[in-house]
Amino acid sequence: MKDNHFIEPPASPEQGYHLSKDLADQAITMIRNQKSSSPSKPWFMFYNPVPITPRTTRRRKYIDKYKGKFDDGYDAYRTWVLARMMKRACCRGHQAHAHQPAAEVAGEPGDAVRPWNTLSADEKKLFSRHAEVWPGSPNTPTCRSAA
After folding, report:
1. Closest by alpha carbon to 20, among 59, 48, 62, 56?
2. Residue 90: how many other CB atoms lie within 10 Å
3. For the whole model, what pTM was predicted?
4. How confident is the model at residue 121 (pLDDT cuts 50, 70, 90)?
5. DSSP one-letter string for 2-25
6. For residues 115 and 107, is the Cβ–Cβ distance under 8 A?
7. Helices marked H in 1-147
8. Which residues, in sequence order, are bridge partners of residue 2?
9. Higher pLDDT, 9 or 138
10. Where are the domains of the chain?
11. Per residue in 98-130, is it b (16+ CB within 10 Å) or e — as a string?
């Protein structure tokens, strides 16, 4: 919806339509229009990309590309990413933060991210699979310049 009016999607999912891409394109258009018509006027935009669920259609080439990459778990992945970032001088002197939300601040105890080594084998398999299929989701946001 835009300004309380329905917007028809320009294509079907089978034709390559991705809701998150469409939302991003709509947001970029709104920002450009605001910037060109009233550049000094304040504005507000609530942008909420579509959450990903295991049931959404995935692109096989991306799933295959990431197969097994997350089998060591999210703790190992976070450590690996931080080391790469520090090597590239993106965040020198930083340390990995506690899991978010941490158990003591989670609204619901079940919402807390548990350390990988405390998960069952089935949970590890499930969460590894979620990480593998994320890049292949048609709803995975893509970066675009608004300039």
Report:
1. 48
2. 11
3. 0.49
4. very high
5. BTTB----SS-GGGT--HHHHHHH
6. no
7. 19-37, 60-65, 74-87, 121-133
8. 5
9. 9
10. 62-136
11. ebeeeeeeeeeeeeeeeebeeeeeeebeebbbe
Confidence of residue 107 (pLDDT cuts 50, 70, 90): low
Q: Which residue has the tokens 């390559």?
A: 16
State phi, psi for 2 to the nearest 5 degrees.
-140, 125
pLDDT of residue 136: 65
Report the first-to-last Cα separation within the chain, whole angstroms. 24
Residues in Cβ contact with 44 at an 8 Å cutoff, skipping those fewer than 6 apart? none
At 4-60, the pLDDT tens digits run 888 888 888 788 888 878 888 888 998 899 889 988 888 888 877 765 555 445 577
Q: How far apart are CA 78 and CA 81, in angstroms?
A: 5
Q: How far is CA 65 from CA 15, 59, 114, in A?
A: 23, 10, 26
